[in-house]
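During the no-cost extension, the postdoctoral fellow (Dr. R.K.) reprocessed legacy sequence entries with the updated structure-token encoder. One reprocessed record is reproduced below for audit purposes.
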Amino acid sequence: MSAPAPHLLFVVLDWGLGHATRTLPLIEESAKTMRVTVASSGPALSWLRKHSSTFKFGTNAINCFEKPGTEVRYNARGGLLGQFTIASQLPRFVRSARLEQQWIQAFCAQHGITHIVSDNCYGAWTPDLPCAIITHQLNPAVPHVLRPFSRRLIHRMLRPFKEIWIPDQAANESHFTRGGLLTGPMAAPLPSDAPRSKFLGPISRFGATKAGESCEAGDVKFPLVASVSGPAPHREKMETIVRSIFQRDGRPALILAGRPQYAQPSTTAQPTSPEPAQRVDLNVTTLYDATSTELQAAFQQADVLICRSGYSTLMDLVALRTQAILVPTPGQPEQLQLAKMWGNEFNWPTCLQHQLEDLHLEDCSPRTKRQDFESSPIDHYTPNFSRTLLDFSEMHSKNTLE
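Re-encoded structure tokens follow.
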């Protein structure tokens, strides 16, 4: 009996846009040779619908559906309280995963799904199909006293997945349990999970940029650029603070706010662009729905770049061979841990959100140029997910033929 043609379901977490942006390259690579369906919710689903709708490879198209999910809460103060806030929600995440799993079972039967790839959705599996999960949080940042519990819980939730895909390079190819090159011990699987763990390399929607390459987008170049993200109210707070320090500096500046379809009237008499997703305040332009080309050009051409330290953003920076001042989102221990690690390991500048108002941009030396990454350990953008996807797509066929 011949195996059915592969039909992959990508299930993407809706906690910001990072999970969506990092999964898109895998979705597009799979759609070149297989039928692909995507399930997500909220802004992540909107973003994936917009970007996957432009994908065409032969007759293949990507269909998107809404799925159930749960919203994470962060403590506004961060620190130890932030870690306990995350840890306290673990039981709710477990319940949400159970509901998600019931939805997945029905959806797969209705749409003829043969494989499932989940990005941090722990309920996106079914015992009848090959299932893989994408995650770099195998050892999350929680209070030390709760780490044994969280590790056991994550191990239990990973058990249904045949493969664990880590979007990083192994810090040591012989010892996966030492974690990732870019994520450190956060991506370290338990010894019992190591045999089914695969390091895919960092994944970015921008692909790899060679030394000296840059992207041009429009005639206006902004020496000051900030990428603002995160949950409310910190996203709005960061946007307000950055706009203030950019206006104080006076040079042309750009804020990439990452809120599609959002617009505000300008606070000055200066006319705004007719585009609804843009506002202008003196020397500061704010884009709420920038294209990938605009993002790439802004990141590469800026003299001073300010970004969150979310892992998807860090992978984009690695792919573009560019550096930024990292500002972790308050209440997100993972971002604080990554900012500290990148500051210590790679000598990247970091700044807490409440310190941003005191940042004097004239004292910030121009960021590291792309060619300076030649000697940096983060100059290792070598994603190898194509082979992993192909092997995974054949897994069901082999099982069917047995």
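Confidence is low (pLDDT under 50) at residues 261-275, 368-372. The CA atoms of residues 170 and 180 lie 4 Å apart. The remaining legacy entries will be reprocessed before the final report is submitted.
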